[in-house]
Amino acid sequence: MNFQLTEEQLAVQQAARDFANNDLLPGVIDRDTEQKFPKDQIKKMGELGFMGMMVDPRYNGGGMDTISYVLAMEEISKIDASASVCMSVNNSLVCWGLEKFGTEEQKEKYLKRLATGEVIGAFCLSEPEAGSDATSQRTTAEDKGDHYLLNGTKNWITNGNSASVYIVIAQTDISKKHKGINALIVEKGMPGFVVGKKEDKMGIRGSDTHSLMFTDVKVPKANRIGEDGFGFTFAMTTLNGGRIGIASQALGIAAGAYELALKYSKERKAFGKTLGEHQAIQFKLADMATKIDAARLLVHQAAWLKDQKKDFVKAAAMAKLYASQIAQDVTTEAVQIHGGYGYVKEFHVERLMRDAKITQIYEGTTEIQKMVISRELLK
Ligand code: CAA
């Protein structure tokens, strides 16, 4: 067993750390307050190769492993989880799904531009009445011969307005239940496709979350991913990988808050000594650091299994379940260590605490992860 990162992985980690500190940190509080999408920063992330890290260089990607991806995700999430969710969806749900299951034509047309960040992708599964219960799709894709007619509404879509390419899950044949579902590539600008209202969120407020409406949108058959009826398996398989991305985001949020709390504990004095000299704070820091290390091991294990082409479904769900839980614990303790300063925006930890919550909800809630894990255990 080797816990040592390679030279390449360390270089990716350092590049992501530098980018996060130099480009994301300035303005992160304002973007959160104003709910402003980090458009210029995402463009630069594309130029630096962070938007299609694992995509084969044939399709303009970085050709990197999943370990490099989670290292970069952790560093970027320490500073700006709004930027990292955009990165995670583009890498894990859109690029990975298209590369694994798309046709050569789809890869040429869409993947090549998504992998460089020239355009951004969105993954559209959730609906007003189908969140965790993902098989209950109400959006319909009626088979019209050479095209599908798409009708319905999608909710809480990350990159909802900033994306140009949308992978939309829809029901074609309800009698076949989940085997009658398709995944279609929809382009912004297709007649009948309207971006709906932007959500006013608790956290990740810089990210761009919208509802989407489709009314008689004609989607060519060439834009279907996989065989007829493959859409649900496509969504589930893609989400298995996506959960590694969100687990690394949760890990980064926790690690970012911990690093701030550690620094503050060395600087702030109370009762004649630094906070770090008080056992009450020492024990908090010890618990936080231990939880972060445990989460990182789970995240790296899931990433490693994926790289080795081994079954990573359970490992990814465990990593997301645990990392998102400790992100709650660690960010709450980081606010506590900062006292009154922790409750105001300037010190960053209150934002990280708000950002942490979503990691227990999207790409499968905590309860869904427990379903996935227990099903794997009882197989
Ligand atoms: N991997 C691969 N296939 C899977 C799977 C998995 N983890 N889980 C289920 N499947 C397959 C099953 O094998 C089955 O296929 P077959 O019939 O061909 O064998 C099919 O899916 C249906 O499975 P179930 O009968 O088990 O379906 P279910 O309704 O009981 O439950 C579920 C499935 C696991 C609960 C699923 O609905 C689920 O994962 N729900 C959560 C959805 C989710 O994560 N939403 C997040 C939205 S995306 C997002 O958040 C992106 C963003 O913007 C950040």
How many individual helices?
11
Helix content: 40-55%
- Give the uncertain stretches in residue-range form: none
Strand content: 5-15%
Characterize the biggest β-sheet: 4 strands, antiparallel
Q: Distance between termini?
A: 28 Å
Structural class: alpha+beta
Oligomer: single chain
- Give the radius of gyration: 21 Å
Number of strands: 9
Bound chemical compounds? acetoacetyl-coenzyme A
The outline comes out as: globular
Average pLDDT metric: 97
Q: Which H/E pattern describes the elements?
A: HHHHHHEEEEEEEHEEHHHH
Explained architecture:
The chain is of the alpha+beta class. A four-stranded antiparallel sheet has the order 2-3-7-6, covered by helices on one side. It is globular. The mean pLDDT is 97. The longest helix is centred in the middle third of the chain and has 37 residues, at 231-267. It has helices spanning 7-24, 28-34, 39-47, 66-79, 81-101, 104-115, 231-267, 279-307, 313-338, 349-358, 366-377; strands at residues 121-124, 140-143, 147-158, 165-171, 181-187, 193-198, 209-220, 269-270, 273-274. It has eleven helices and nine strands. Helices cover 51% and strands 15% of the residues. It starts with 6 loop residues before the first helix and ends with a helix. α4 (66-79) packs across α7, α5 (81-101) packs antiparallel against α6 and α9 (313-338) runs antiparallel to α11. Acetoacetyl-coenzyme A is lined by residues 89, 123, 125-126, 132, 134-135, 158, 178, 232-233, 236-237, 239-240, 313, 362-364, 368, 371-372.
Short descriptors:
single chain; 379 residues; alpha+beta; three-stranded mixed sheet; 11 helices; binds acetoacetyl-coenzyme A; flavoprotein; AcylCoA_DH/ox_N_sf; AcylCo_DH-like_C; oxidoreductase; Acyl-CoA dehydrogenase
